Amino acid sequence: MADTIPQTPFALISGSAQWGLMFPDDVLEPGVSVRERGLVFETPWGPSENWQVIEVSGEGTPDGEPRRILNVFAHGWPIDSIDHEAFRKVAWILREAGVKKILADSTSGSMNRMLKPGDFIIPWDVLDLSQTRYSLSGKMTAACQSVQLFCRHLAALLKETAEELWPHPHRVVGQDQQLVFAHNWGPRFGSRAEAHAYKVLGADAMNHSTGAEASLAREIGACYVAASFIVRWQDGVMDRPPEDSTALHESLRHPASRISLRTMIRAPLSEQCGCHKLRTLTRREDIRFAQNQRGFTCG
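Structure for 5'-methylthioadenosine phosphorylase, as requested:
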């Protein structure tokens, strides 16, 4: 039996940055507990599993009030299968929950020789040639601008938090560097040819989630920011054999998870960023008029 979707304006999409941890328990962040765990929500495209509700005391929140954060494991991906529909399921659930602020964390591969494994990066733009086919709204029902796919206010707060917690000598690279993330559906890493093509097109890093999530967050009118750290160079970027990233990931997953959690604890509900104005819903009567003019019918 499916669970009832809770109402909260805050969501944290956990990704590979947190793999290997019991989140948020292992982070040991004061005033944080799990209210509900193992939730399953029904969507129009089937069930979505591995959700939980994180409860935060008023200590550390900008208004001094307790808050709840809706959290999903591994971007909502099934554990034992490949289902890219998961992105749409997650976005639909977040919309139904009334979520307005989203942080998603991940790991990524670098296509920029200046970005090294261990760098914490906050993307500024997306290169997604697929323009996710797993849309919620459809072209006729919403106009979604892409001038600011990542919330600049959440990104500034994320950078500030990361600079407090990210271990040296690794670096924090914020939006001032205007990094571009390329989207690769996965599950395999990008090929040498793909990495070269995306690099020529202007991408600095690549992963399997940020492009789709950024597009869907815009469709539901929510602010979105991505927190990622580099675990490897994409194949073909450096003239060397691929390196095992296991030890690096294990050493950085705790601070990465704490940065994500603490950023969402600190995030205000302000709309001064302007993200909510970048989606315009099409009036139903306008669609009817356009269809009638062409001799179509509209249900």
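The helical segments are 86-97, 152-165, 192-201, 210-219, 246-266, 284-293.
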